[in-house]
Specification:
Blueprint: H1 21-25, H2 34-61, H3 67-100
Helix pairs in contact: 2-3
Length: 103
């Protein structure tokens, strides 16, 4: 095992290598921030919901929309909404746990 380096102890960490709050707010090279990711998920969810609404409206009005296409669009919108709801629930739970911490 030549390529594996040994694990360093906790005492070897210095203040220069410890992450700071300001560093946590800026995105890493090539990455996106958490708020940008949440905004993107919300936009995608809204787009899928609009597509599902358009497909169901087209199905009901007889514009040639296939039943299968309408069902698939509806399921995609439902899954996106459920994911957004679970992310919100986890964020609220994390916030509540942080508020209960005692220093």
């Amino acid at each position: 095992m030549n390529g594996i380096s040994p694990i360093s102890g906790i005492g070897s960490a210095t203040a220069a290598t410890a992450p700071t709050f300001a560093a946590a707010r800026t995105p890493h090279a090539g990455g996106t921030s958490f708020s940008e990711m949440l905004h993107s998920v919300a936009q995608q969810s809204a787009t899928l919901d609009a597509n599902a609404t358009r497909a169901v409206t087209g199905l009901l009005s007889g514009d040639g929309t296939d039943v299968h296409q309408a069902m698939i669009a509806t399921q995609k919108a439902e899954i996106a909404f459920e994911m957004a709801l679970q992310v919100r629930n986890r964020a609220v739970s994390a916030y509540q746990q942080m508020m209960q911490m005692q220093f």
